Amino acid sequence: MGKFSPSTRRIIGLFPELLGIGGIQAAGRLTAVALVEIAHAHGWRADFLSLNDSPAGHLLRADRREIEFRGFGRAKARFVLSGMANARAGSLVVALHPNLALPARWIQRIAPSLKTIVICHGVEVWKSLPRLRRRALVAANLVLAPSTDTIRNLISVQGVPEVKIRKVPWPLDPGFLAMADNRDKLSALDDFPRGRVVLTVGRWAASERYKGADLLIGAIAQLRATRSDLHLVAVGSGDDLPRLRALATSLGVSEAIHFFENLSRTQVAACYAAADFFALPSTAEGFGLVFLEAMAFSKPVIGAASGGTTDVIEDGVNGLLVPPNDPERLAQALDRLLRDESLCAELGRRGAEIVRQKFQFSTFQAELERLVTDCVLAGENLASANRG
């Protein structure tokens, strides 16, 4: 290895946010845990910087690990300068959002042998990025994506060479899987409705109406005419909740639509355990971690045949796919599951098998470790060649 030793190797993680709510934040936390485990196994150092978390040192507790990271309160200049100060030859920068490809590129310029990996998610690469960000993304040594749809957009919209892209699906959080395996120990929420319950989980923001909560409310209103015991439980917060509540009232089903905000992870798990099935007709999911959570609890899932959802839901195998933005077909899919208990049981059983076979955290970590170590060694070889 020449002058390189394990103690000189460093992973610099650039995160948009680690403490917030949402799929990107959850994926970031899973990646942070995996990178810490990889660094620990190899005797390397890992330094994590978060652009949007409050400007202080933080401690993230995740899956038996306490992960230290520094927040920068949206101060982009200090964020980039801190990354540059941490850069060393033979190191690796892992950027957890395509918008962070540009800071990663700037850090790489002061240490040319340093390699960069940019992780993308979904909707953020559906439209062409600003020119400098797109050039930085294309210049990355590796670009990771969780789904076939995200890969397709990276190639066709962003112009990333296919040879640079690797598909690495997100895993299920090990802690959440443990709760699913011990669901009998979960206590149902006191105000959880009785009857047949459709569960949906998301961030209900006006900027993310593509999640389709309004379509679900409309479908429940349509089905309640003949199914008075049908309820929808919507878990999550967001500035679109007043509109959704008003919609439920206007459709005459406010008593059947239940919004649960600010739940703990254990309480969310209890909602999965108590529901009959899960639905999220989102048209812009990069992957859909919530589908994995529902599958872990043996719940059949309904999603829109759009974006990364099709990588998770196999129609007729572990759930049902409906056309995007089609309220009539969504209502039909819900009614089908309500009428066919044996189908629900079979879809739930297969979903539970699939999530444990294909989406284990250990599988994700092993694949990430292979890619990380390849990049680190490639950087060291480049540095050695330059010195020679």
3D architecture notes:
With 388 residues, this protein is an alpha/beta fold. The protein has two domains: 6-170 and 360-387, Glycogen Phosphorylase B (Rossmann fold, 3-Layer(aba) Sandwich), CATH 3.40.50.2000; 174-358, Glycogen Phosphorylase B (Rossmann fold, 3-Layer(aba) Sandwich). It has 14 helices and 14 strands. Helix 1 crosses helix 14, helix 3 crosses helix 4 and helix 7 crosses helix 12.
Which structural traits does this protein have?
alpha/beta, 388 residues, Rossmann fold, 2 domains, elongated, single chain
Q: How is the secondary structure organized here?
A:
Blueprint: E1 10-15, H1 23-42, E2 45-50, E3 57-62, E4 65-71, H2 76-86, E5 92-95, H3 101-109, E6 115-119, H4 131-139, E7 142-145, H5 148-156, E8 165-167, H6 174-181, E9 196-201, H7 213-223, E10 230-235, H8 241-250, E11 257-260, H9 265-274, E12 277-280, H10 289-296, E13 301-304, H11 309-312, E14 319-322, H12 327-339, H13 341-358, H14 361-387
Parallel strand pairs: 1-2, 1-5, 2-4, 5-6, 6-7, 7-8, 9-10, 9-12, 10-11, 12-13, 13-14
Antiparallel strand pairs: 3-4
Helix pairs in contact: 1-14, 2-3, 3-4, 7-12, 10-13
Shape: elongated
CATH architectural arrangement of the largest domain: 3-Layer(aba) Sandwich
- Into which percentage range does the β-strand content fall? 15-25%
Assigned CATH class of the largest domain = Alpha Beta
Distance between the termini: 13 Å
Class of secondary structure makeup: alpha/beta
**Overall mean pLDDT score?**
93
| Uncertain residue ranges | none
Largest sheet: 8 strands, mixed
